[in-house]
Amino acid sequence: MNTIRQKAINTIYLSIFGNGLLAFAKGLTGFFGNSYALIADAIESTTDVFASILVLVGLKYSTKPADKNHPYGHGKAEPLITFGVVGFLVISATIIAYESIQHIQSPHKIPEKYTLIVLAVIVVIKEIFYRIVLNKSEETKSTSLKADAWHHRSDAITSLMAFIGISIAIYMGKGYETADDWAALLASGFIIYNAYLIFRPALSEIMDENLYDDFVLEIRTISKSVEGVIDTEKCFVRKSGMSFHIDLHLIVKGNISVKQGHDVAHRLKSELQKKLPEISDVLIHVEPDK
């Protein structure tokens, strides 16, 4: 579990560094290149930095071991942190939308052509970041890391919208100066939509919604391979941060002793945690075969 935790934390450090560097590059290029779409993009990247820092704090807290006051660990802090990340997305989208409308109503210069080169590079970089962080989120089963990945994807979308808007403004000429502002306004809508995509699974995790059918099937398959196990009945999965807590009803022969039933349950727990290291604990209820 410590290895998984470190992978997630290292990924967040990468996000913080990347977002900070890109926010500076976008803001500088947008200011000198007369493009509010790029400045809006810089605003989002800046909020991404703070959101990533929030995720980092959440990951470190949520992976703390269980204690007397938190017998199930601190994993539920992770989806709560994800709600905070969603808040950052909504705030950045609101700021971008408001400022875009203000710029649309005010005359300004057509953006410089070199802003397109910067944006093209940014779109590629952010998509690469998205894929790296998403891959790590799936590997570590981290909800907040997945939220951070979608931050990169939403950033890539706003950069792409800015590229389209600036291209229209440059090549269509006079009368289309506000095209990049309209692009920024459209991008804010995409950001809100992405915020919902991040919010929904985090809410499901907080509410212990049943979303792990494939995982349950894997648990049942492993269980049947353990000596002494006849079958399984109820199997409930609760996700807590990057780990899982399992409630499992186990069926054994009805004529064996309590100790033998206990030994079967112990073997099964060990086998499940060996094959599925993301499982933090297994509570097993032993039932006799009818």
Structure notes:
The structure is a single chain. With 290 residues, the chain is mostly helical. The chain folds into two domains: 2-206, Cation efflux protein transmembrane domain (Alpha-lytic protease prodomain-like); 213-288, Alpha-Beta Plaits, CATH 3.30.70. The protein has helices spanning 2-32, 36-62, 77-104, 114-140, 143-172, 179-206, 213-224, 258-275, and strands at 231-240, 243-252, 279-288. It has a three-stranded mixed sheet with strand order 1-2-3, with helices on one face. Helix 8 (258-275) links the parallel strand 2 (243-252) and strand 3 (279-288). It is elongated. The two termini are 38 Å apart.
What would a concise description of this structure say?
Helices cover 69% and strands 10% of the residues. With 290 residues, it is mainly alpha-helical.
Spans of at least 5 consecutive residues whose pLDDT stays below 50 are none
Major pleated sheet: 3 strands, mixed
Q: Which structural class best describes the helix and strand composition?
A: mainly alpha
Element-by-element helix/strand order: HHHHHHHEEHE
CATH architecture of the largest domain: Up-down Bundle
Instruction: State the helical fraction.
Output: 55-70%
CATH topology of the largest domain: Alpha-lytic protease prodomain-like
Number of domains: 2
Widest sheet: strand order? 1-2-3
Number of E strands? 3
The proportion of residues in beta strands is 5-15%
Shape: elongated
The CATH C-level class name of the largest domain: Mainly Alpha
- Note the total helix count: 8
CATH homologous superfamily of the largest domain?
Cation efflux protein transmembrane domain
- What's the end-to-end separation, in Å? 38 Å
Rg, alpha carbons: 25 Å
